[in-house]
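Predicting holo structure, magnesium ion bound.
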Amino acid sequence: MIDINAFWNDAKSVLSTQIQTISYEVWIDKLEPVCFVNGALILSTLSAASKKTIEQRYLDLTKEVVSNLNPSIQNVEIIMDVQREQYLKKQDSFIEDEGFVVKEQPVLSTSNTSAFLEKYTFDHFVQGKGNEFALAAAKAVAENPGGKYNPLFIYSSVGLGKTHLLHAIGNYIKKNSPRTKVLYVNSESFINELIDVIRRSSENKELNSKFREKYRSVDVLMIDDIQFLAGKEGTQEAFFHTFNDLYQNNKQIILTSDRSPKDLQKLEERLRTRFSWGLTVDISFPDMETRIAILKSKAAQEKFNLSNDVASFIAENSTSNIRDMEGFLNKIIFFSSLTGHPVTTREIAKEALSDFIEEKKESFDASSIVATTCKYFNITSAEIIGKKKTKNIVEPRMIAIYLITEMLDLPLVTIGQIFGGRDHTTIIHARNKISEDVKNDTRIKIIVSDIKNMILNR
Ligand code: ADP
Ligand code: MG
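Done. Tokens:
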């Protein structure tokens, strides 16, 4: 029989990876599992307000997670704690009597299509420098799966939108050509399935062919975070055959990873080569302007009125990944719903995030960026601001300008003034030049990241 507590704990551990920590702790972690009624999992809460919030924000996700864990549970209901007894009287006997334990469920699901998160669409993906190629490629593939960009390989460090783009492709195809079979798996579940199939294939001969059938019957196969395949020879072998079959039949393959194919060291050469047959695109950390646009878009989805001041504050304090930036926004939204005070100024935002943003991170400004850059190159601030045009000064100057545009939200004219009254077009030129170099020139990339670390860790 299903141990409802163990089952809910499993569900919670999945949910905790999908919901911001603070929201998870406030809304989900406090729910109590009650029983199953008509195949629905009943959860109780103490307050009507939290019942409402959970229903609005997390019920769909919770249903999805629960039914993925156990397909016989298709529904979730949130009740008030006082209704407990009433529900316990109605509880299902069949789940109790059926006698199966969730953990013993086979890992291999035979479904060859996936459900995609509604919020991860192209409309909700903000285009900006750093992601424009990846976005264009994702749209092209969604329009014409199995066309010229096959496989599509997207890579970036964590929290920059790879999974979002995969879901966006899935949502787009489901909407525009509902008969196309799109399967999304992360490489961990691919590996787990395969291990499970191998382990049980002696007792169940059909399992192998079921696995092959599942993966080879899809039109679009997406494998997220393929880097986990590195070092797993058996899985690579199986994947190699799947890849070839799909590829030869003009089926679309989309892969994501935290690094480029050539940097996937522990991956067989033949796979690395295949990954580069199609189109490889990377996503880099978006600039200030794009970060602010992303925040505005997320706030609008949450129907939260986000002031420019607060948006700038959050964007300035998010310097490496969008997921964390979104986390800050959620904390602000949460803070304002808890206290009933709108968070409209950077001072209140600072207070709301005081536990999460380290003091040192707030203390950089244009002059400290300039000073750190000078220190790094061993030049003086008079030189960096001055008129000298020698390479050993021009390069640091452009890098400092680039870092200011990226790390702070200052008008270009103001930045021009900081650099001895330069025209804003000069600032744009410097910014664009270095942002190109960061992509194409490893030397500049390393310098920029070193200086950035110095600024953040002062
Ligand atoms: P990754 O898979 O690269 O680790 P995710 O796709 O999970 O990253 O993205 C992390 C979060 O950042 C998601 O909530 C996603 O919606 C958001 N995000 C990243 N880039 C953008 C963008 N350009 N526009 C809107 N949201 C974005
Ligand atoms: Mg991801």
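The domain at 366-456 is CATH 1.10.1750.10 (Chromosomal Replication Initiator Protein Dnaa; Chain: A;).
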